């Protein structure tokens, strides 16, 4: 056991947030804490980090364990550059490196003092060994790899942190935390501000991380990839599910059905007993009254089951556009856009038909939102044109929710937009988006970001629009709200074009994926998993083409000497492709490792030479060897970076 929470309770004034929270994690375990917004997930993290004290209960962390915590709202403040901030995490290695340089200078100075020189040489050799063991020659390339993985480019490494946006600062804080390599990682919404490529990199990093990880995240695809345990906080209590997020969703529903069945059976039996008791008492005879009293006593001792927590049903209201568009909704031809000599995209062509649910994906900065603004006629493209189909009405989802009147309540907001709509249908629509009971009378200025998002979507789907442009519609939504949105879009009979980094959402909703890059615009007829599958096939084809181009003779010989078996030819070709890719990768790694060993030996030989009297007494030879060693170390660092990328 590396981390244990025992009977954790926490209340703020009269509002209980956590009540008897219990779980424990072993070394190397990866878990997620899930629950509705406001359930107490971040509060629990703050209790674990001792930022908050529990009202009762205790957190037990194994002695000597290093804890790392990324808060949801990072407040990183520094006068350093990004790289300088990262180098702070490697200060022991930097100190060792500086000490090695100092030893080299001292050995050159003590050429006439054999005893001191011998002592320096021993200290130098011991320190150099520690430096190598702790990746001293590769730490700079490792830092660059982490920064690039989280979406930074080389040109940004020397940028001052004070000049960064909030999202960039959060990514810097995450990179810094990962580089410290804590025994326990607490990550509160780590995929916020990450594009899909950075999310995939982080998934790979955390999957191979040897420490214990606890994650709070609304990114369901991310959780499916990383965690093997779900800790749910619901109605102040904790429930444990040993599996990934999809396992949790499935088994939570099963457990609820079982609990509901037992609860209803017990309620039926209680009702039956109460009727028997009333019947016995109605006769007024002492003997029967005593029997009624006996039954009442037994009933009072019954361990009554609580009603299962209410689960918000998926939307069953079918929303339809007021005006049906033609079959051809939009055709875009040769669109391009640049800002201040910064090229975003060039020669974009696409078409969308009625009823399609199309996801637009791409790295941050490729121009996805810019493309949406061009489609919505808020911005002009540099080239190209857009043709809209017959009766197409565009509706745009504004992340800032500027169309909402903060003084209205929810009923008033819908009524103002649709004066002919009765209160009943308004309440039904709001209920479909998770606003029930007195929630519909809340002033809009009191709503959370996620609630405002749901209200904006409800208004949008009731509008005359039949072509919805949604820019990151799942931002700030909790998991239940995302499910509501997924259901709403799936039932919507109009056309939807949306930008999203939420791969789980894309999988559930998209019928097609469009990928925007600076040099290409690619269409994939399927959801996100289909897109990933096709991208992997494309990468394999490219690797095979490189293999065939560089080693054509060997491939041809193999085809002659190793004829296709009688089985399926496609399987055989696929197997040959995999073997070729594997051989190529193994050869690359082998060559890199060979050169790394050569350079390490050269550096060791130079260190030994620098300790020889005939060398350190000759300033010119010593300087030449030192320069040669510096060059070898620079090459070695680059090879380490390349080697790590291939593993």
Automatic annotation (TrEMBL):
Coiled-coil residues: 575-642
Cross-referenced PROSITE patterns: ABC_TRANSPORTER_1, ABC_TRANSPORTER_2
Domain ABC transporter: 3-260, 330-543
InterPro entries in the record: AAA+_ATPase (IPR003593), ABC_tran_C (IPR032524), ABC_tran_Xtn (IPR032781), ABC_transporter-like_ATP-bd (IPR003439), ABC_transporter-like_CS (IPR017871), ABCF_ATPase (IPR051309), P-loop_NTPase (IPR027417), Val-tRNA_synth_C_sf (IPR037118)
GO molecular function: ATP binding; ATP hydrolysis activity; DNA binding
Xref: Pfam families: ABC_tran (PF00005), ABC_tran_CTD (PF16326), ABC_tran_Xtn (PF12848)
Highest rank taxon of the organism: Bacteria
Gene3D superfamilies, A to Z: P-loop containing nucleotide triphosphate hydrolases (3.40.50.300), Valyl-tRNA synthetase, C-terminal domain (1.10.287.380)
SMART domains xref list: AAA
Sorted UniProt keywords: ATP-binding, Coiled coil, Nucleotide-binding, Repeat
Segments passing through the bilayer: none
UniProt protein name: ABC-F family ATP-binding cassette domain-containing protein
Originating organism: Vallitalea pronyensis
């Amino acid at each position: 056991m590396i981390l244990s929470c025992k009977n954790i309770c926490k209340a703020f004034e009269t509002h209980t947030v956590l009540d008897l929270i219990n779980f424990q994690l072993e070394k190397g375990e990866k878990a997620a804490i899930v629950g509705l917004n406001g359930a107490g997930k971040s509060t629990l993290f703050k209790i674990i980090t001792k930022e908050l004290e529990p009202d009762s209960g205790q957190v037990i962390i194994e002695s000597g364990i290093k804890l790392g915590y990324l808060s949801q709202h990072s407040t990183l403040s520094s006068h350093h550059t990004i790289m300088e901030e990262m180098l702070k995490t490697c200060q022991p290695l930097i100190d060792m490196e500086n000490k090695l340089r100092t030893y080299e200078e001292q050995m050159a100075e003590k050429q006439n003092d054999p005893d001191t020189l011998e002592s320096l040489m021993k200290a130098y050799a011991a320190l150099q060994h520690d430096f190598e063991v702790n990746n001293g020659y590769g730490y700079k390339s490792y830092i660059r790899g982490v920064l690039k993985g989280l979406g930074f480019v080389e040109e940004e490494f020397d940028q001052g942190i004070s000049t960064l946006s909030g999202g960039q600062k959060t990514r810097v804080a995450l990179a810094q935390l990962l580089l410290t390599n804590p025994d326990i990682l607490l990550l509160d919404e780590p995929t916020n501000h990450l594009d899909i490529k950075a999310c995939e990199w982080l998934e790979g990093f955390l999957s191979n991380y040897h420490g214990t990880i606890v994650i709070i995240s609304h990114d369901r695809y991310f959780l499916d990839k990383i965690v093997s345990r779900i800790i749910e906080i619901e109605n102040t209590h904790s429930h444990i599910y040993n599996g990934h997020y999809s396992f949790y969703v499935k088994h939570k529903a099963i457990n609820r059905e079982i609990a509901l069945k037992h609860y209803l059976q017990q309620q039926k039996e209680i009702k039956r007993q109460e009727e028997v008791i009333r019947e016995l008492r109605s006769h007024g005879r002492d003997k029967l009254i005593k029997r009624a009293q006996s039954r009442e006593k037994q009933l009072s001792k019954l361990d009554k089951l609580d009603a299962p927590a209410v689960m918000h049903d998926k939307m069953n209201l079918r929303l339809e556009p007021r005006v049906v568009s033609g079959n051809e909704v939009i055709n875009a031809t040769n669109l391009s856009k640049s800002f201040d000599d910064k090229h975003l995209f060039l020669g974009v062509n696409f078409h969308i038909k009625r009823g399609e649910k199309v996801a637009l994906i791409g790295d941050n900065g490729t121009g996805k939102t810019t493309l949406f603004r061009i489609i919505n006629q808020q911005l002009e493209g540099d080239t190209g044109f857009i043709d809209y189909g017959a009766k197409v009405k565009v509706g745009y989802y504004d992340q800032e929710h500027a169309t909402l009147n903060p003084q209205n309540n929810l009923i008033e907001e819908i009524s103002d937009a649709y004066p002919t709509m009765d209160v009943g249908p308004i309440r039904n629509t709001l209920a479909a988006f998770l606003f029930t009971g007195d929630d519909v009378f809340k002033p809009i200025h009191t709503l959370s970001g996620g609630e405002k998002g749901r209200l904006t979507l409800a208004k949008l789907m009731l509008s005359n629009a039949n072509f919805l442009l949604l820019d990151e519609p799942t931002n700030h939504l909790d998991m239940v709200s995302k499910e509501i949105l997924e259901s709403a879009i799936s039932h919507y009979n109009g056309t939807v074009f949306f930008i999203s980094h939420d791969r789980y959402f894309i999988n559930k909703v998209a019928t097609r994926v469009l990928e925007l890059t600076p040099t290409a615009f690619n269409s994939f007829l399927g959801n996100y998993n289909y897109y990933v599958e096709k991208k992997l096939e494309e990468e394999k084809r490219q690797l095979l083409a490189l293999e065939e181009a560089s080693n054509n003779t060997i491939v041809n010989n193999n085809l002659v000497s190793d004829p296709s078996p009688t089985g399926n030819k496609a399987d055989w070709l696929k197997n040959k492709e995999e073997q070729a890719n594997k051989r190529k990768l193994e050869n690359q790694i082998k060559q890199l490792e060979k050169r790394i060993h050569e350079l390490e030996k050269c550096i060791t030989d130079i260190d030994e030479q620098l300790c020889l009297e005939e060398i350190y007494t000759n300033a010119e030879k010593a300087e030449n060897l030192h320069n040669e060693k510096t060059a070898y170390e620079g090459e070695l660092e680059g090879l380490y970076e390349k080697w790590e990328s291939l593993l």
